[in-house]
Amino acid sequence: MNDINYKSPLYIQLREVIRGKIEDGEYPIGTAIPSEAQLAETYNLNPLSVRSALAALKYEGLLRSVQGKGVFVNGPKTERDLDTLGGYRQTMDERSINAHTRVLIKALRPAGPYYSMLLDIDKGDSVWYTKRIDYVGDTPAALEEIYIPEKLLPSYGDVDIELFSIYDIFTWNDMRPTIANQTLRVLFLEPSKAKLINLKPDQAVMELSNLTCDDKGRKIEFARNYIRPDMTDFYAHYQRS
Amino acid sequence: MEEYKPRPKELAMEYLEAYIMENNLKANDKLPPERELSEMWGMNRITLRSAIASMEAAGRLYSVQGRGTMIAPRHTRTLQDLEGFSQSVSRYGGHCETRLLSFSTVECDKHLAQKFKRTLGEKLYRISRLRIIEKTPMMIENAFIPCILAPELEEHDLVKGSLYAILENVYGLKPDHGEEKTSITAVNAEEAEYLEIKADSPAFWIVSTTKDPDDRVIEYCRSIARIDVVEMSSILRWDYAGGKKHE
Known about the structure:
The complex is a heterodimer.
Chain A: H1 10-24, H2 36-43, H3 47-60, E1 63-66, E2 70-73, E3 83-85, E4 89-90, E5 99-110, H4 112-119, E6 126-136, E7 139-149, H5 166-172, E8 177-187, H6 191-196, E9 205-214, E10 219-227, E11 234-239
Antiparallel strand pairs in A: 1-2, 4-11, 5-6, 6-7, 7-10, 8-9, 9-10
Helix pairs in contact in A: 1-3, 2-3
Chain B: H1 8-22, H2 34-41, H3 45-57, E1 61-64, E2 68-71, E3 75-78, H4 85-91, E4 96-107, H5 110-116, E5 123-133, E6 136-146, H6 163-171, E7 177-186, H7 189-195, E8 202-211, E9 217-226, E10 230-239
Parallel strand pairs in B: 3-10
Antiparallel strand pairs in B: 1-2, 4-5, 5-6, 6-9, 7-8, 8-9
Helix pairs in contact in B: 1-3
């Protein structure tokens, strides 16, 4: 790509402009870039040239088009079939074609006395609080509440977590989850929460909580996952240590 | 980016959890009186009371008239330990008791034959035990062990001694690895009576298979555990050694 100059076709020039902005972080990973119409207007280009520029970058896997949402910057591919040892696995495959997630809340809040202790940060530090529902097809399968220290992941707010997994976001930011303490409980949810996953108040729910550390020993995430018991079983393999 | 403001009750529950953690409160330890906590945290008493009520409903706290609010006992069953129930309880300093509900010999049906990789009709010991900690019944374990691997198992004390210890020390059967499936079931009338809960209450349903170093199934166990006093824990590790690196 070194021999691009003012004589190069405009769509190729635009392609390199966008590539540059992705590399410089002006278009952060996991966020939407300006629309085709906006790009056409900014550079005074024919919409067809814009489309060609984007098509090439999508083909390379640098961009990803999402119906009705826009064009997003893709992160480096992460190893999806990573081996995990021990721990609970769900039979419900969160990567299955029909799985998707809907975010109810994604906002900053003060860590407060409890989450500061869990995540090893100061009481006044901010955490990203996420509340979302995981669907399998049209059925709500789980309600998730996630707490992530803001200072470890300042860009979290800009990334569309309905499109990218939090695991991806960690890896883009040089955080490798290495160990998680898991607790599995069965309990009854408050009616307001139970309703979100179509659970009757007298139906019990599985609660899987995870406190995850990365390879530098930092506590990067605390998550509570309330899972409809009819949607999944938990499997675990163990080995005498 | 918007700011999320936890509801007052939610926040009160966080303060309570933090207090329990910070002061390292254990089962049956007492919380300071409501008045004291609400003053300390500058919190509305009604809010605090409703937080405590929610945590009682969730089995985290319990109250006794005239004595105050206490931390509910909870037995944590750790997956990786592969230690028997009695060992894991004594490690946490609890007093544990076992009641032998039944001891019998059964023949492999189709399902059990598949589990053990044995033929139909082979004999299995079926040992049903009730586990009690500090007078609270916690779980019922129904273990199956091939008779051929542990002949005359009935001669051993399965109430005082640990089953795993007997298998290892007497029969040379080392529990080495295994797998476990956890889900929810509803208890029947008989199980409910043993566990001192209402019939049809939800309970943990745990099915585990334990193997020796040669991958031979030495025990297959179906357990039912109370959800209000038992929780499961496990450690998950990511293995990057085998994975491909990415840019």
